[in-house]
Amino acid sequence: MKLCNLIIEGKISLGAEVEGRVVNLTATIKNMSAPLPGGSVEDLLTDWPKSFDKVRSLLEEAQKRGVLFFVDGEPKFAPPVRRPGTFRDFYAFEQHVRNARKLRGFDVNPEWYENPVFYFSNPNTISTTGAEIKFPTESKKWDYECEIGAILGGGGSDLTPEEAEKLIAGYVVLNDWSCRDIQRVEMASSMGPAKGKDFATSISPFLVTPDELEDRRENKGYRLKLTAFVRGEQYTDNVWSSINFSIPQMIARASKNCAVYAGELFGSGTTGFGCLLERGFDHDLWLKSGDEVIVEIERVGRLTNRVA
């Protein structure tokens, strides 16, 4: 399934994509006189396995009966999770790590290969497609990051990767906006990236459940293309299955000696050549006001934002 949070007359409604069209599930289920399992994606995540089965069953019944309530015109979306309990962003594509560290005169440190590493970012600045992105005015080196996002539909602690995989409710496209000059200063003090990134993160509007991708499983991910376009020009062309650590491995690592919970957001880290930083630090390619940035993952979705 592909589920979303729709904004209808200023309120959140549960939505879905069916054959390329957006359905107002809240209205559809209400017209079927069926019990509503939740009015938003977040509501479903709190009891995900049961909610998933219930919504899928209701959606199939609505299709058979021909009573789907389609959204007219251009839909308005809220993020599938608006304020996740936490947002952990990882560093899992070797090509990106190698390129970024080379700029500072380093090779990939051997410890990187032992466990997936991450930092905590801001769960309160999540937006979705169509949102304008406001960069801090004290920064001049504005960047995008093409990433995979995963949202949990359950929790636990000290998980194995196999257990962690069962908790993934679905995937989104993720753009971890970055101020590279601020980030560089902070990380020189062995802290951060903090203020270099916490002002904005975008995720695509649809939560895409893992069963939609299963036939493309490959290596530690899926054989699905990751692309990004800036100012109409393609800057990123990679594949999910080039990742070094699987997302279940990331979730398992995060759960060691603490708990993870339903609704939490995980980022894969930038794919190889998934940002402008990998082209160097001193160039004129950095994002500027008015630029449109499109990040896309095959089968998962497209995320479009404009720089304010």
Could you describe the 3D structure shown?
- The protein is an alpha+beta fold and 308 residues long.
- The protein folds into two domains: 2-77, no CATH class; 79-307, Alpha-Beta Complex (Fumarylacetoacetate hydrolase, domain 2).
- Helices cover 20% and strands 31% of the residues.
- It is built from seven helices and 23 strands.
- The strands form six sheets. Strands 6-5-21-10-12-14-7 form a seven-stranded mixed beta sheet, covered by helices on one side. Strands 1, 2, 3, 4 and 15 form a five-stranded antiparallel beta sheet that branches.
- The radius of gyration is 19 Å and the shape is globular.
- The mean pLDDT is 97.
The outline comes out as: globular
What is the number of E strands? 23
> What structural category characterises the helix and strand content?
alpha+beta
CATH superfamily of the largest domain: Fumarylacetoacetase-like, C-terminal domain
Number of domains: 2
Task: Name the helix and strand elements from N-terminus to C-terminus, one letter apiece.
Answer: EEEHHHEEHEEEEEEHEEHEEEEEEHEEEE
Q: What does the average pLDDT come to?
A: 97
For the biggest sheet, the summary is:
7 strands, mixed
CATH fold-level assignment of the largest domain: Fumarylacetoacetate hydrolase, domain 2
Using the CA coordinates, give the radius of gyration: 19 Å
Helix content: 10-25%
How large is the count of helical segments? 7
CATH class of the largest domain: Alpha Beta
Instruction: Please mark out the parts with pLDDT under 50 across 5 or more consecutive residues, or reply none.
Output: none
- Largest beta sheet: what is the strand line-up? 6-5-21-10-12-14-7
Terminal-residue CA separation: 33 Å
**CATH-scheme architecture of the largest domain:** Alpha-Beta Complex
The share of residues in extended strands comes to 25-35%
